[in-house]
Write a structure and sequence with these properties.
Its EC number is 2.7.13.3. This is histidine kinase. Its main location: membrane. It is an enzyme of class 2 (transferase). The structure is a single chain. With about 450 residues, the protein is of the alpha+beta class. Among the domains are: about 5-145, Histidine kinase-like ATPase, C-terminal domain (Heat Shock Protein 90); about 300-445, Heat Shock Protein 90 (2-Layer Sandwich), CATH 3.30.565.10. The chain has helices at about 15-30, 35-55, 85-90, 130-140, 145-250, 260-290, 300-315, 340-355, 410-420; strands spanning about 5-10, 60-65, 70-80, 100-105, 110-120, 300, 320-325, 335, 360-370, 370-380, 425-430, 435-445. The strands form three sheets. The chain has a five-stranded antiparallel sheet. Strands 7-9-10-12-11 form a five-stranded mixed sheet. A two-stranded antiparallel ribbon has the order 6-8. The longest helix has about 100 residues, at about 145-250.
Length: about 450
C-alpha cells in the first residue's frame, strides 16, 4: 500500500529545476537515503525536469514513500503531452542509472516518468509517527536561490573530487601491491614449473620402468602357465601308470600279496591318486590363466545340473553329522556353459564338505534382478576376515584348518573364481570363524 504523497510541486520555468533539485535532495534526506543517494536522486530529478520543460508545458512532480515491505522512495513526474514515451525513454536512458528503477509510460494525465530508490537497511523505520514528522519537516522547508543550489552543487563536486582522489590513491597503492604480488607469483610459478618439469621427467621414467616390469611380469606369467601346463601334462602319464600298476598288483588274477605288501601298494595308489588330482588341477588352472578355455553357451537346465551334483557328491557326504542338501532350483534355466558351471559348483561343494565337521552344507539358487545367485553355505571352521581374499590364491590354505575328509590342494577355489570370470560373473565369500562360510556365485541370466 502506497502512503499519501509527501509533497507536490509544479515545474513551470527553468528556475523551478533548481527548486525540484533542492526538494528532491531534502525529501531523500528526510526519509533516510545516504548522502550519495541524495545527490543521485536530486540530479535525476533535475535532468528529468529539464527534459520535460523542453516540451513547453508545466509538469507535476509528486513524492511518495512506500513503507510496507521494502521501504522505497517514489517520484512521479507527469507532463500533459502524449505520445512522447519512446523519445523520452531514449533521452533519459543515462539518467536511469542514477536510480533503482525508471519507467516512462502513458498515464491518464499524459506522459509519466516514474523513478524509485530503495532506502538502505540502516534507515529509520517509517512508522506513522515518523511519517508525521517528515510531513511537518518538509512543510517547513524553504527552497533556496539558484546561487544557494550552485554552492551546494559545488560542495558536492568538491566532495566527489576528494573521493575520486582518495580512490585514485588507493588504486595506485593496490596496483603497486598487485605488481609486487605478480612478481612473487611469477617467481613461484617459475619454481613450480621447474619442479613440475622435474616431476614429469621422473613420472616418465617411472612409467617406462613400469612398462618394462609389466612386460617382464607378463613374460613370467606366460612362462609359469607354460611350465605348469607342460609339467602337468608330462606327469599325468607316469602317475596314471603308477595307479594302473597298483591296480594290477591287487587284482585277483595276480599273485597273492601279503597283508603288508597290500597295505604298501594301497599307499602307493592313494599317493598317486592325490598326485593325479593335483596335476589335473594344475593343468586346468594353467588353461584358465592362458585364456584357452572358451565357454560353450547354451540354455542350461539347472534342475538337471543340481540333480547331477546331488548324485556325484553324495558319496563324499558320508558323515551323519553333516546334512548335505541341494535345494530344488528356483530358476528353470540359465544361459551359460553347463560344464564350467557344474565345475565351479562342484569345487565349492567339495571344498565345503572337506572342511565341515558337523552341521550342514547347502546349495541354493535365486534370481536377483537380471542375475542368478548361487549360494553354497556351510557350518565349517570359517575364515578370518583378513584371509578371505587369500584363499583365492594358488596353493594357499588357511593356517590351522584341517580337512575332515580328503586332502586340500589349494587350487579348487582359485580355479572356481577364474571360471566364474570366464562365465561373465563373480565369486565372493562371506565367513565368520567358528560359524561357517558362504560362497556366492553371481552370473548373468543371459550371456
Amino acid at each position: 500500500m502506497t502512503a499519501e504523497p509527501l509533497m507536490r510541486m509544479r515545474l513551470r520555468v527553468e528556475q523551478d529545476i533548481f527548486v525540484v533539485r533542492q526538494l528532491g535532495r531534502e525529501v531523500a534526506r528526510t526519509v533516510g537515503l545516504e548522502s550519495q543517494d541524495q545527490t543521485r536522486m536530486a540530479t535525476a530529478l533535475s535532468e528529468v525536469g529539464r527534459v520535460l520543460l523542453s516540451l513547453g508545458r508545466p509538469a507535476e512532480v509528486t513524492f511518495t514513500v512506500e513503507a510496507i515491505g521494502v521501504p522505497t522512495l517514489h517520484v512521479a513526474m507527469t507532463h500533459p503531452a502524449r505520445g512522447e514515451e519512446s523519445r523520452l525513454a531514449g533521452q533519459l536512458q543515462q539518467v536511469g542509472r542514477l536510480v533503482d528503477t525508471m519507467e516512462v509510460d502513458n498515464g491518464e494525465s499524459g506522459t509519466v516518468v516514474r523513478m524509485a530508490r530503495r532506502l538502505p537497511a540502516g534507515a529509520p523505520r517509517l512508522t506513522p509517527e515518523r511519517m508525521d514528522e517528515i510531513h511537518a519537516e518538509l512543510a517547513r522547508h524553504v527552497p533556496g536561490t539558484p546561487l544557494d543550489e550552485l554552492a551546494v552543487q559545488n560542495q558536492q563536486l568538491i566532495s566527489a573530487l576528494d573521493e575520486v582522489r582518495a580512490q585514485r590513491d588507493d588504486l595506485a597503492r593496490l596496483n603497486a601491491e598487485l605488481e609486487e604480488t605478480n612478481r612473487g607469483v611469477m617467481a613461484l610459478y617459475n619454481q613450480l614449473s621447474q619442479e613440475l618439469e622435474e616431476t614429469n621427467r621422473g613420472v616418465v621414467a617411472l612409467y617406462a620402468e613400469l612398462d618394462e616390469k609389466s612386460a617382464q611380469l607378463a613374460a613370467a606369467s606366460e612362462a609359469k602357465s607354460r611350465f605348469l601346463a607342460n609339467v602337468s601334462h608330462e606327469l599325468r602319464a607316469p602317475v596314471t601308470a603308477i595307479i594302473g600298476l597298483g591296480r594290477l598288483l591287487t587284482d585277483s588274477g595276480s599273485d597273492e600279496l601279503t597283508t603288508e605288501q597290500r597295505r604298501q601298494v594301497d599307499l602307493i595308489r592313494g599317493s598317486a591318486t592325490d598326485l593325479l588330482t593335483l596335476v589335473n588341477g594344475l593343468l586346468d588352472l594353467a588353461k584358465a590363466e592362458a585364456g584357452r578355455i572358451e565357454p560353450t553357451w547354451s540354455e542350461v537346465d539347472l534342475k538337471a545340473v543340481f540333480g547331477q551334483l546331488r548324485g556325484t557328491l553324495r558319496p563324499l557326504a558320508t558323515r551323519p553329522e553333516v546334512d548335505f542338501t541341494v535345494e530344488e532350483p528356483g530358476l528353470p534355466t540359465l544361459r551359460s556353459d553347463e560344464v564350467l558351471l557344474a565345475q565351479v559348483l562342484r569345487n565349492l561343494l567339495t571344498n565345503a564338505l572337506k572342511f565341515t565337521e558337523a552341521g550342514s552344507v547347502r546349495l541354493s539358487v535365486r534370481r536377483i534382478d537380471d542375475d542368478a545367485e548361487f549360494v553354497v553355505a556351510d557350518t565349517g571352521y570359517g575364515i578370518p576376515p583378513e584371509l578371505q581374499e587369500r584363499i583365492f590364491e594358488e596353493f594357499y590354505q588357511v593356517p590351522g584348518s584341517k580337512p575332515v575328509s580328503g586332502k586340500g590342494t589349494g587350487l579348487g577355489l582359485p580355479y572356481a573364481r577364474r571360471l566364474a570370470g570366464i562365465l561373465g560373473g563373480a565369486l565372493r565369500v562371506d565367513s565368520t570363524p567358528g560359524e561357517g562360510s558362504t560362497f556366492t556365485l553371481r552370473l548373468p541370466l543371459a550371456s
